[in-house]
Amino acid sequence: MTIKHYLQFADFTADEYARLFERAALIKRKFKNYEKHHTLTDRTLAMIFEKASTRTRVSFEAGMYQMGGSVVHLTTGDSQLGRSEPIEDTARVISRMVDVVMIRTFEQTRLERFAQHSRVPVINGLTNEYHPCQILADIFTWIERRGSIRGKTVAWIGDGNNMANTWAQAAALLGFELRVSTPRGYEVDSQLAALDNPPPASRKAWQNFADPLQACAGADLVTTDVWTSMGYEAENEARKQAFANWCVNAGMMAAAKPDALFMHCLPAHRGEEVAAEVIDGPQSVVWDEAENRMHVQKALLEYLLLGRVG
Ligand code: CP
Ligand code: NVA
Questions:
Q1: Which helix H or strand E contains 116, and what residues bound it?
Q2: What span, in angstroms and rounded, lies between the C-alpha atoms of 164 and 232?
Q3: Atom of ligand 2 nearest to the CA of 56
Q4: For residue 71, how far is its CA from the centre of ligand 1 (angstroms)?
Q5: What is the C-alpha separation between 244 and 232, in angstroms, rounded?
Q6: Closest-lying ligand 2 atom to the alpha carbon of residue 134
Q7: Does 161 contact ligand 2 (Cβ within 6 A)?
Q8: Whose CA is closest to atom 7 on ligand 2?
Q9: Could you read off the pLDDT tens digit of each residue along the chain, which spans 310 residues?
Q10: In what order do the strands lie in the sheet with 221-224?
Q11: Residue 237, H or E segment
């Protein structure tokens, strides 16, 4: 039997996303009304963190308990992974004891090796290359506020990182335009951003802009992320210099549509990739994005474990 994993955004179709977003809306409504939603009673999620986390941990852990399930939390330091147990052996063992695994790690290939040796579904909780659960939450947040994202324009300002690659995959799959502005040398890797089976429209799904202000011009959504992602800390000083002009400020927001939204996956550094007046301003929806991680991931867990949504 083929096991359904969620290793990158391209793993699901546009139809699957439409159903997931509908299910997430229902799950969120029930949560807000204090209605029980015990669809995963007696199911266990193992979470493996090889990098730090606040939102990913709390959203998966709280979400799993709210669905009647339970959680096991491991880190590199407190497991045998930190003492060189092969990832393949770890996968074989853990997947005999739990129903689903979420991993946050470094290389995508490490996640893939785990998935190849797992008996149960595996979810990408962030790798160097992708962060699909975050984009799931971001697009759900867009839909809540503005409806369909098809045909809209999203401006990505900053590093061509795991978030940027995932936005590019989402643009190709869900039919919106992504405008990317990064400093030279930090561009999105077109191979990582590509889909295995791209629809014809995906060829134009993302476009590079040297000037961040131009990328923002007329955009429906402006989004950014830290200049230095986890695992790249040694480059911090060089990045601070290279990215100095890639701070999303009031001028960039003024170039976007008047009703444009601002998103950031968090954690944020005010005064670096985003000005305080933008992230704390009226167009920012960052707290909704963070909360929505939990609602969309509950729908995702149901889909992977029960094979259906609804
Ligand atoms: N956005 C996000 O994944 O946050 P954490 O690193 O806190 O999990
Ligand atoms: N690009 C960031 C996202 C953190 C949630 C990182 O990988 O550190």
A1: helix 108-116
A2: 16
A3: 5
A4: 18
A5: 17
A6: 5
A7: yes
A8: 229
A9: 789 999 999 999 999 999 999 999 999 999 999 999 999 999 999 999 999 999 999 999 999 999 999 999 999 999 999 999 999 999 999 999 999 999 999 999 999 999 999 999 999 999 999 999 999 999 999 999 999 999 999 999 999 999 999 999 999 999 999 999 999 999 999 899 887 777 665 556 689 999 999 999 999 999 999 999 999 999 999 999 999 999 999 999 999 999 999 999 999 999 999 999 999 999 999 999 999 999 999 999 999 999 865 5
A10: 206-208, 177-181, 153-157, 221-224, 261-264
A11: helix 236-242
Active site residues: 104, 131, 134, 225, 265, 293
Cα(293) to centroid of ligand 1, in Å? 9
* C-alpha span between 160 and 179 (Å, rounded): 11
**What stretch of H or E contains 103?**
strand 100-104
On whether the CB atoms of residues 90 and 116 are closer than 8 A, the answer is no
Tokens of 225: 């992320």
Question: Distance from the CA of 284 to the center of ligand 2, in angstroms?
Answer: 19
Hunting for tokens 């963190």 — which residue is that?
49
Distance from C-alpha of 219 to C-alpha of 26, rounded to nearest angstrom? 29
Q: How many CB atoms lie within 10 A of CB 175?
A: 17
> Pocket of ligand 1, candidates 47, 50, 54, 127: which has the most ligand atoms within 8 Å of its Cβ, to mutate?
54
